[in-house]
Amino acid sequence: MSRIKSFLLASLLGLSVLGGALPTRAARTTFQSPLQSPTPVIASIEPTSIRRDRGGTLTVLGDGFEAASVVRLVNVGVLQTTFVNTTTLTALVPTEVKPGTYTVEVRNGDGATATAPTQLTIKEAPPPPEPTEVPQPPPPAQYVRPLLTVAAYSTDPAVVVAGKPFKLIVAIKNVADDTAFNTVLTVPSGDFIPVGNAGTQSVNKVHIGETITFIQDMQAKSGIGGGLKPIELKIAYNDRNGGSYNETPSITINMPGGSGRAAPTAVPKLPQLIVSNYNIAPQELIPGTEFKLRFQVQNVGTGDATRLSVVLGGAASADSSSGNSGDSSGSGSGGTSGGVSGAGGDFATFGPMGSSNVKFYPRVTVTDTLEVEQQLIVNSTAKAGAYTVKVSLVYDDPKGQRRTDDQVITLRVLVPPIVEISYAREPGPAIAGQPWPVSLQTVNIGRATTQLSKMEIVTPLSVTVQNGSTFIGQLEAGGQFPLDAVLIPSEAGVLPFVVQVHYLDDFNRPQIITQTFEVNVEPQPEEPPIDPTQPSAPVVLPPAEESLGDQLLRLVLGLLGLDSARPPSTPLEPGMPTEPIEPGEQQQQPVPVRPMPMGKG
Question: Exposed (0-12), middle (13-18) or buried (19+): which is 64, by Cβ within 10 Å?
C-alpha cells in the first residue's frame, strides 16, 4: 500500500492541469509535415476571345493543376471548372459576362495561384447582317395589241354610175389598247379600179381611239350590172414590237339598177380575249405544293369567239394552213381552223394535276367572262423566284379564221426554312415562384443551309423570363442551335409559352416560325406547422455529480496516457422524454452546451 502511495505521489510531480480536468501525464507528440502541393503554372489559354451572346468553354494549359483547382476571372468570379489532368483545366464562361478584357487565374486547393500570360477578351455580339436586296424582275405587262377596223365609209358622189369616176372615202379606227404603226390601206382592182395610184395609201401611226380617213380616186367599170358590188379592203399594220397584223374588211357599193339604194357595209366584228384576273390557293407556293389556279377570260372585242381552247403553258395550232399557227401576235390571217397542241409548253416549274392543261369552251360572246380553273403542282426542285406562265387563247372569229391571243401571268415560289423547334432535353417539374430551367433547340431538318435571325421565348406577363432570346445566324442542314432559358412562373396551373424563330423570306419579307409548348406548374409545397411547445435546438442536461470512484478511474487513465476527460453530456433532442420529477422537486431546465474538448492521449 505504501508503494502505491509513493508511486502516486511521485507521478503527481510530473502532472499538468489541462482545462480543469484531472492532471494527466503530458504525452510526447510527433508532427509529420504534410506533402507539399504543386505550384500551378499557366502556359496559355484557348481561346483568347469569346462572344458574349454565345459564351463558351475556356481551356487553360499549364502544369501543377489538381482536382481542387478552380479557374477565376478577375473582377468576375470563379468559373465552373473541370479538372482534365495536371496540365489541363476547362471552365465554362457564362453569357452574363460583360464585354471587356479579363485576367485569368488558377487557384489550387492550398491557395497557390497562377496568372495567365494572355488575357481573355469578351466581345459583344455582332449586329445581324443587313438583308441583301434581291433585284426583282419588273411585273409582266398585260399583253396588248392594236386593232384597226373600218369605222365608216362612203362615196362621192353618193350614187356611183358605171363608167364614171368617184371618190371612195374610208374611215379607219384603232379600237384596241396599243398604237398601230406603218398602217397601209390597199383597195384592190375589180369592178372598181383605183385611179392615180396603185390603190395603196399609208400612214405612220394610228393612236389608240384615233380615226384616220383615206380618200381614194376610183373608176367604175363600164357594163357592170346594178346591185351590191363588194370591195375587199386590205389593212396591214404593225405593233410597237414589230408584230404584223392583216385585216381584210369588206365593203359594198350599191349600183343603180339593183335592188335597193347604196348602203354602208357593217363594220367587221372581231373578238379579242384577255385574262382579266387571276388568283391562286394557297397564296404561298413552295416546292412540292399542289395549288389551284383560277383566272377569268373576258371577251373585250366586238364579235363572238367560238371553239375557244385555253392552253396553260402556251399552244401551237396543229393546222399549218391557217397561216398563224402558234402566232402570239393574234393575227387574223388564214381561214381554215385546225387543232390545238398543248404539249409544247414550259412545265419545268409548274405541272398540271387532275386534268390536262387544255380547256375547251364552245363560245364566248361579247362582254362575256369565263371562269377557268386548273389544278397544278410546284416541282420539288423549283428554286425561289417569280415565274411567268404563258396562257394561250386559241379561237375562231366570226369569219371562221383561227386566232391566238397569248397572255402572261406571274406566279411566285418561296423556299422557306424547314426547322423543328423542340426540347433539347426533357425539363424537370415546374413549381410556382421557383426558377424552372428549360433547354430548347432549333434543328434544320431541310436539305440546304438556311439563314435565321432571332430565336425567342414569348410568355404571359405573369412569367419572368431570363436569357429568353438569342441570335442564330446561318444554320447548316442537320445542324441545331440551343437556347437555355429560365422561366419563373408566379402561379400554379397550365403555363403555355411560344418559341418564335424569325427570318427573312426570299422576297425580303419578315416571317416567323412558331411552336407552342405547355407545362404544368405545381403549387409550392406547404411547410409543416411549428409546435411551440417543442424546443428548437437540442439541449443538454447538466452533468451528474461525479463519484470518488469515477475520479480515481480517470486519474489512472491519465497516468496511463489514456483519455481522462469527463464523459460529455448526452444532448436531449426535442420531444425526448425526461426523467420523472418527484413531487416537490424543481425540474432542472436543460441548457444548450458545447461538447468539452477531448484530452490528448
Answer: middle
Of all helices (H) and strands (E), which one includes residue 8? Answer: helix 2-12
What are the residue ranges spanned by the domains of the chain?
41-123, 148-255, 273-413, 419-522
> Hey, what amino acid is at 450?
T
Residues 154-180 have a mean pLDDT of 89
Neighbours of 248 (CB within 10 A): 16
State the CATH class of domain 148-255: mainly beta
How far, in Å, CA of 217 to CA of 196, rounded? 7
Counted residue by residue, the chain has a size of 601
Task: Report whether pLDDT(156) > 80.
Answer: yes
What's the CA gap between 287 and 506, in Å, rounded? 13
The DSSP output letter for 524 is P
Q: Please name the CATH architecture into which domain 273-413 falls.
A: Sandwich (2.60)
C-alpha cell at 362: 364552245
* Environment class of 125 (CB within 10 Å of its CB; exposed 0-12, middle 13-18, buried 19+): middle
- pLDDT tens figures, 458-479: 999 989 999 999 999 999 999 9
Domain 41-123 is found in CATH 2.60.40.10:
yes
Q: How far is CA 380 from CA 87, 228, 355, in A?
A: 54, 65, 20
Name the nearest CA neighbour of 222 among 154, 157, 165: 165
Residue 402 CB partners (closer than 8 Å, separation 6+): 317, 319, 322, 324, 334, 336, 337, 338, 394, 395, 396
Would you say 144 and 174 are in contact if contact means Cβ atoms under 8 Å apart?
no
Average pLDDT for the chain = 81
Strands 430-431 and 510-522: parallel
The reply to whether 419-522 shares the fold of 41-123 is yes
Centre a 10 Å sphere on the Cβ of residue 305 and count the other Cβ atoms it contains. 27
Indicate the class that CATH gives domain 419-522.
mainly beta
DSSP per position, 402-459: EEEEEEEEEEEE-----EEEEESS----EETTS-EEEEEEEEE-SSS-EEEEEEEEE-
What are the cell numbers at 100?
Answer: 471587356
DSSP codes of every residue in 197-230: SSSEEEEEEE-TT-EEEEEEEEEEPTTPPSEEEE
Q: Where are the beta strands (DSSP E) in 124-199?
A: 148-156, 165-174, 180-186, 192-194
Strand runs labelled E in 20-69: 24-25, 41-46, 49-51, 56-63
Residue 310: the pLDDT is 92
Grid-cell match 404603226, residue found: 181
Give the separation between CA 9 and CA 390, rounded to whole angstroms: 128
Smallest Cα–Cα separation from 235: which of 175, 324, 172? 172
User: Tell me: the pLDDT tens digits for 501-521?
Assistant: 999 998 899 999 999 999 999
